[in-house]
UniProtKB/TrEMBL annotation:
<dbReference type="GO" id="GO:0005506">
    <property type="term" value="F:iron ion binding"/>
</dbReference>
<feature type="compositionally biased region" description="Basic and acidic residues">
    <location>
        <begin position="506"/>
        <end position="518"/>
    </location>
</feature>
<feature type="domain" description="Fe2OG dioxygenase">
    <location>
        <begin position="143"/>
        <end position="264"/>
    </location>
</feature>
<dbReference type="GO" id="GO:0006449">
    <property type="term" value="P:regulation of translational termination"/>
</dbReference>
<feature type="compositionally biased region" description="Acidic residues">
    <location>
        <begin position="591"/>
        <end position="625"/>
    </location>
</feature>
<keyword id="KW-0408">Iron</keyword>
<feature type="region of interest" description="Disordered">
    <location>
        <begin position="547"/>
        <end position="664"/>
    </location>
</feature>
<keyword id="KW-0479">Metal-binding</keyword>
<keyword id="KW-0847">Vitamin C</keyword>
<dbReference type="GO" id="GO:0010604">
    <property type="term" value="P:positive regulation of macromolecule metabolic process"/>
</dbReference>
<feature type="region of interest" description="Disordered">
    <location>
        <begin position="491"/>
        <end position="529"/>
    </location>
</feature>
<dbReference type="GO" id="GO:0031418">
    <property type="term" value="F:L-ascorbic acid binding"/>
</dbReference>
<keyword id="KW-0560">Oxidoreductase</keyword>
<dbReference type="GO" id="GO:0009896">
    <property type="term" value="P:positive regulation of catabolic process"/>
</dbReference>
<dbReference type="Pfam" id="PF13661">
    <property type="entry name" value="2OG-FeII_Oxy_4"/>
</dbReference>
<dbReference type="InterPro" id="IPR005123">
    <property type="entry name" value="Oxoglu/Fe-dep_dioxygenase_dom"/>
</dbReference>
<protein>
    <recommendedName>
        <fullName>uS12 prolyl 3,4-dihydroxylase</fullName>
    </recommendedName>
</protein>
């Protein structure tokens, strides 16, 4: 007779859960290279991490099983869509957040088995424990997954920053660089290296700032993994521009990666520490605010004493003689100044071309090209990324810090050249720029010119000559919080020489080639003018409520608004929102309000000018009238007239205001002048100059504290605005 015994109890739910967890952990660990989680491996990496410079970081030559990584690469390229994103701080092709894989249907998930396995493995308990063991950081969240795939192709870059946002605790990058034709042998000269920056000795009461140059480069390599703890004011890094062309291969040459962050543990997760999270989150927010804030630039007063400044006061004879040695005579004519003032009053900005005299412009063009060639920053560089020390010395020093800006400036400790050196036939670029920086823009005569053009009272000022080297320099978006400023930028970037197109061949019906003509044609100017080389100057309305500063820095749009934040008719704008550089007297006529002088009107014009105390010199009248006629013809050719339906135009502007915060974008030009009345909190920056540029972006820029005329007991006085 069979013996009856009680049935064994079923495994508890806890036991089943523990078994599933062990199976999942086994699958997660199998995604990585062997021995990664061994105690000896972790200790070796932790020791190297502690000793690393310029701040603690780890570099693993191999992380993931190679077969798995190849499948991940195939799924990324075959199934994910990359969107090109460009702001002041980066240009990159990026997928969406891969945490969104959680929301796909089972059918959709079958497209990403390897990518899903990699993501789950990276945020698994064993790997998070491994990261903590190497870095010594606090608990990491497994539920907050923050990762994406990035493709850095030719021209892509990421400028200096420290990754301090929200609850980020550890940054990581897994490299999958592609060299074309199935190869993964990335060449160092193609760019894309991770650059790590040391910090300078901190100033008491302030966060440390990064040095202007990185002290370590980590070139990308297949299956290489880099990670480091996010440290406010310490973990400064950037991604070098990729300079190699993508090519026509299916995969192409691109710096592909999977990157993201481990965040602090969340409530309910193992190791969550409420007090520590609150303290750290507040500290991170505070550091981000300090890094983003820019203290007002120290301004210099004009020599004292000065007479009461009235913007409408005509030039004195000495002022006119001084300005004539620098400026195009067209811009010194009273009628021109009156029309420019009207235009500035309407738009709060002016963009002028050929501002300097022809003789001075020719000297500058030749000298600046020669300077670039001497510093190996000219066209012969063939798009290679220059050394960070390029252009230093011989009267030039680097300005920073690079998490806000980087460019070369004239060494303030260098000896000043003797007066009138700009008259020499062989004056150097340094001498010419120093004269513009120290003599022209800060002069009382140029102050008088600004007053006539803007109807404002320029007060204290700061002027600086800048050199933005290709592949290295930029400024990031910043704003002055307190008061409006008048910005003046004298753009001096030599433009590419026109290139001849090859002779065209016409093919007849029989397919035989027959040369039609051998004459060459000038190619349309590209590079600077098209903004393909970067270096453009941009003004943007402030954005509120964005957690990531990189979000509000995004620029674009198809039209421009007035720089004071009010909507203005798009004047001289192309489809990309880039402001057209104007010829002399351009933008003086607006919507037919002021007509170009016609024959028979000269006496009337002279009478009007006499009433104002102005007179156009007879020898300049022909050039003046020709410029006005050219402007009118250009306006007619581009259909730049008033809208037929005013209400529709206003509605279009309202729609536009919702699309973009970009108010004005100005390409780098030669011998151009941009004047902008910048309201408080208005963002502005100069875009990173690409290594593809054939030379440096040069300018002399200044900003002025401004006042306006106030009436006091019947007398006009200048008051601070």
């Amino acid at each position: 007779m069979p013996t009856i015994r009680p049935r064994s109890p079923s495994p508890s739910e806890g036991a089943r859960s523990s078994k599933r967890q062990k199976l999942n952990e086994a699958d997660d660990t199998s995604a990585f290279v062997p021995d990664l989680f061994e105690q000896a491996t972790v200790k070796k990496l932790a020791d190297a991490y502690e000793a690393s410079e310029p701040y603690k970081h780890a570099v693993l030559d191999r992380l993931v099983d190679d077969d798995l990584l190849k499948k991940v690469k195939d799924e990324i390229l075959g199934e994910l869509r990359f969107a090109e994103k460009e702001t002041d701080i980066y240009k990159v092709h990026q997928t969406g957040d891969l945490a969104s894989l959680n929301y796909l249907t089972p059918e959709q998930l079958t497209l990403f088995p390897s990518l899903l396995r990699l993501r789950n493995a990276l945020y698994s308990t064993p790997f998070r424990r491994f990261v903590r063991g190497v870095t010594g950081c606090g608990p990491l969240s497994g539920t907050q997954q923050d990762m994406s795939s990035n493709s850095y192709r030719q021209g892509c870059h990421l400028l200096n920053h420290d990754d301090v946002i929200g609850t980020r605790r550890v940054s990581y990058i897994l490299y999958l660089p592609l060299s074309g034709s199935g190869s993964t042998d990335w060449k160092d000269e193609w760019g894309g290296a991770l650059e790590l920056y040391p910090v300078l000795p901190p100033v008491e009461g302030q966060l440390p700032e990064p040095d202007t140059k990185p002290s370590k480069r980590v070139p990308p390599a297949w299956n290489q993994f880099v990670f480091f703890e996010v440290q406010p004011g310490h973990s400064f890094h950037s991604v070098e521009e990729v300079v190699v062309a993508l090519g026509e291969d299916k995969e192409g040459r691109q710096r592909l990666s999977v990157s993201g962050w481990f965040h602090m543990a969340k409530p309910g997760e193992e190791g969550y520490e409420e007090d520590r999270e609150r303290d750290r989150t507040e500290r991170l927010a505070s550091s981000l605010e300090q890094l983003s804030a820019s203290p007002p630039i120290a301004l210099k007063p004009y020599p004292s004493p000065l007479p009461i400044f009235i913007p409408s006061t005509p030039f004195t004879e000495s002022e006119l003689i001084f300005l004539s040695s620098y400026l195009n005579p067209v811009y010194l004519q009273p009628r021109s100044l009156t029309l420019l003032s009207q235009q500035f009053t309407k738009d709060s900005s002016l963009s002028l071309k050929d501002i300097l005299s022809e003789a001075l412009a020719e000297k500058l063009d030749a000298a600046l090209r020669q300077k670039d060639a001497a510093d190996c920053l000219g066209p012969d560089r063939q798009c290679r990324i220059p050394a960070h020390s390029a252009g230093e010395g011989n009267g030039w020093v680097l300005a920073g810090p690079p998490h806000k800006l980087r460019y070369c400036v004239l060494d303030p400790s260098a000896a000043l050249p003797p007066a009138k050196t700009i008259d020499g036939e062989t004056a150097s670029a340094t001498t010419l720029l120093r004269s513009l920086q120290d003599d022209l823009l800060p002069s009382p005569a140029f102050r008088a010119w600004l007053g006539l053009v803007t109807s404002l009272v320029p007060l204290n000022h700061n002027v600086i000559a800048r050199r933005f080297r290709p592949g290295l320099d930029y400024t990031l978006a910043q704003a002055d919080e307190e008061e409006a400023r008048l910005d003046v930028t004298l753009s001096l970037t030599p433009q590419p020489h026109p290139k001849a197109k090859p002779a065209q061949t016409k093919v007849d019906k029989k397919g035989k080639g027959k040369t039609v003509e051998k004459e060459t044609e000038e190619e349309e100017m590209g590079g600077w003018e098209s903004c393909a080389w970067g270096g453009w100057e941009s003004y943007m309305a402030p954005h509120e409520g964005e957690e990531d500063p990189a979000v509000y820095r995004s620029s674009g749009g198809s039209r421009s608004k007035g720089v004071n934040g009010t909507s203005e008719r798009a004047n001289g704008q192309d489809h990309a929102g880039k402001e057209e550089v104007k010829e002399p007297q351009d933008k003086l006529l607006e919507d037919g309000d002021i007509d170009a002088p016609e024959e028979g009107d000269e006496e009337q014009a002279e009478d009007e000018e006499d009433e104002e105390g102005f007179e156009i010199a007879e020898e300049d009248r022909e050039a003046y009238e020709e410029a006005l006629a050219m402007e009118a013809a250009d306006r007619a050719a581009n259909g730049d007239g008033p809208a037929e339906n005013g209400e529709e135009g206003e509605d279009a502007e309202e729609d536009y205001e919702d699309e973009t915060g970009t108010l004005l974008t100005q390409p780098a030009s030669f011998n151009g002048l941009l004047i902008v009345l910048r309201d408080p909190k208005l963002m502005y920056f100069v875009k990173y100059v690409s290594a593809a540029a054939e030379g440096s972006r040069w300018d002399v820029c200044g900003e002025w504290q401004i006042g306006e005329l106030e009436e006091d007991d019947g007398e006009e006085q200048a008051g601070e605005s």
